[in-house]
Design a protein that fits this description.
- By secondary structure, the chain is mostly helical.
- Helices cover about 85% and strands about 0% of the residues.
- The chain has twelve helices and no strands.
- Helix 1 runs antiparallel to helix 4, helix 3 runs antiparallel to helix 4 (about 120-150) and helix 7 (about 220-255) crosses helix 8 (about 255-270).
- The longest helix has about 55 residues, at about 370-425.
Length: about 425
């Protein structure tokens, strides 16, 4: 039995939650800049980056928790307690380690790396110490949310997560006009993470039958969680390089102006990937449960439906961008951007179409217990991508950067679809793909 919540409805919950956070950021940003000033806002922007990337680099335990808890709920829901307890404690321990590391390096970071103005040094140092204190709660919330996602109650996930995420923008916008500085803002953000963690604990107790916090009982060994999460962590570490290497290379070979022409169309087009991201977040626990039941054929039907929907949506985007890239850039940023970036935008639109489709077999591999394959593919792609980028950027500049990224994405899609097919065949179950 699939837990409550069809994939389509869960996807809409995920998109809605991300949309609210996006709107909050757009509305709040001018207020924050006006009242904090550019320098304090710069420090706050670094805090946002730390919060975002620290939650991402959780050694893959978030995704591992969702998979193994979803499978445990299918086998024996009342035995999920020990697994969730171990996973959450591991996340909390990593958060504590990260907090200690940040606190220990704060003097060096403030004085030598950030080049903080003298008038802001004390405030920035204190803000970093407060940030170090809330990092454990960032990963605690991440671990709890991953466990709740395993129940497929994405309505509860987003009701709790959306206010916590939007608070990153709303809290500074609300407090800065009253003269509250960085320390007070960051401390308040920490309180929102604690509150979100408490709400998730309540949701888990009400959603999972017989749930209780305990280390006693049969559970997936922590070693298995870490082994699975380790491969996810490899992907998380390599992925930013694959995403942003082209900008640094473009700046070095063609100048920072070229980066300026490339970044806006890249950001505009790749933002569309929030759609397959929301879908695959909903698909992951569903795939995990179906595969635990041995229903590979049913996952095949779900893969086909998901890929078909994404193909329809992103084909429309690709056609619109392909036809109107130049006038859209001209209207948005001016004639120079239309002249220099239109072809890059068209190439990126095609690449995003392909990448959107590959999201589905990619998450299927994670659900099938093969997180090693996406990580190995990225390790293979990285040197090839670097070499291709060097050749194409040197020859065609902005368009060459887009072409290199598109080729890398296309190669990754071919590998991902092929791997999913092979893994399915090895399970010796007809999936009807």
């Amino acid at each position: 039995m699939i837990p409550p919540g069809p994939v389509g409805r869960n996807t809409l919950w995920n998109l809605g939650g991300q949309g609210v956070s996006l709107v909050a950021g757009v509305v709040a940003m001018p207020v924050i800049v006006r009242h904090l000033g550019e320098q304090r806002f710069g420090v706050l922007a670094l805090v946002w980056a730390v919060l975002g990337y620290f939650a991402l680099f959780d050694f893959g335990l978030g995704r591992a928790t969702t998979k193994f808890v979803a499978e445990q709920l299918e086998r024996a829901p009342d035995a999920a307690g020990p697994l969730i307890t171990r996973a959450v404690l591991a996340q909390l321990a990593m958060g504590l380690a990260g907090g200690v590391a940040l606190a220990a390096t704060t003097p060096m970071v403030v004085h030598r790396i950030l080049s903080v103005p003298a008038v802001l040094e004390d405030e920035t140092r204190a803000a970093c110490y407060v940030l170090a204190g809330i990092l454990p709660f960032v990963l605690l919330f991440s671990g709890l949310r991953a466990a709740l996602e395993a129940t497929q109650r994405f309505d509860l996930v987003n009701v709790i997560r959306t206010p916590a995420t939007a608070a990153s923008f709303i809290v500074p916008a609300a407090l800065a006009p009253f003269g509250v500085g960085l320390v007070g803002i960051i401390a308040t953000l920490g309180i929102t993470r604690v509150a979100a963690s408490g709400a998730t604990v309540i949701a888990l107790r009400r959603t999972i039958p017989g749930f209780r916090w305990t280390l006693r009982g049969t559970a997936v060994p922590l070693r298995d969680l870490l082994n699975y999460g380790g491969w996810v962590a490899v992907s998380n570490a390599v992925n930013p390089v694959l995403l942003y290497f082209d900008r640094f290379l473009l700046g070095g070979l063609a100048g920072v102006a070229a980066v300026g022409y490339y970044a806006p169309p890249y950001e505009a087009v790749t933002r569309l990937l929030v759609i397959p991201g929301a879908l695959t977040t909903a698909l992951f626990p569903a795939f995990s449960i179906l595969l635990e039941q041995g229903k590979v054929e049913e996952t095949g039907r779900l893969v086909r439906k998901s890929v078909a929907v994404l193909a329809l949506v992103f084909a429309l985007f690709a056609v619109v961008i392909g036809v109107f890239a130049a006038p859209l850039l001209d209207l948005w940023l001016g004639a120079a951007f239309a002249r220099e970036g239109a072809m890059a935008m068209r190439l990126l639109a095609v690449a995003v179409f392909v990448n959107a489709l590959a999201h589905v077999p990619n998450i299927w591999l994670y659900a099938a217990g093969r997180p090693d394959l996406p990580a190995k593919f990225q390790g293979l792609e990285l040197p090839l991508y670097v070499l291709t980028s060097l050749l194409l950027v040197r020859r065609w500049g902005v368009t060459g950067a887009a072409a290199a990224w598109s080729l890398r994405v296309g190669f990754d899609a071919v590998l991902t679809f092929a791997a999913a097919y092979v893994v399915r065949r090895r399970r010796s179950v007809r999936a009807g793909w």
